[in-house]
Amino acid sequence: MGDDGRVHLSEDAPVREVPRDPAALPGAAPRPAETWLRIVQVHDRITRRVDSALHRRHDLSLTGFEALRRIAESPGERASMSELAEALGLSRPGVTSTVSRLVADGLVLRERRDADRRVLHATLTPAGRQRVTEAARTHDELVAHLLAHLGDDAAVVTDALARVSSAARARS
């Protein structure tokens, strides 16, 4: 050990300092704050990129696209407002605003069913069906392109995020 407190292997060997923070070592487990930051950054960047592409190519926001897709995938291409709010992670006012824009654009109709007049449903119009079909190609290709950077880690990351999502959803 030299006077400076470092271990020297030989005179010509490069001196590598051991970081004071073990998390800075390659392969070390990241701190929760680092993991959280990465999740937020990835979500924010992918969301902005996909939203921008959908606006440019289809005059549709990402939230509007997600609402159209959920309606399209629902039985009879019809979903209640509460189903949409739950699926999209939006508040009731948020889903009402999103559906109002889709109605104004002629992509969705609001209707009440005879079975339960209290429940308001959103139903696709033919224009909505066409728009979501076209926009789905843009959305899915761009998301697949961006997530391809996960490489062989895609299954592990997906599984891990599903576990975190499930734990966060559970009420304590």
From TrEMBL:
Residues 1-29 are annotated as: Disordered. One of its GO terms (biological process) is response to stress. The keyword DNA-binding applies. Keywords: DNA-binding. It comes from the Bacteria. The keyword Heme does not apply. One of its GO terms (molecular function) is DNA binding. Residues 1-20 have a biased composition (Basic and acidic residues). SMART domains: HTH_MARR. Gene3D superfamilies: Winged helix-like DNA-binding domain superfamily/Winged helix DNA-binding domain. Residues 32-166 form the HTH marR-type domain. PROSITE patterns: HTH_MARR_2. This is DNA-binding transcriptional regulator, MarR family. It comes from Blastococcus aggregatus.
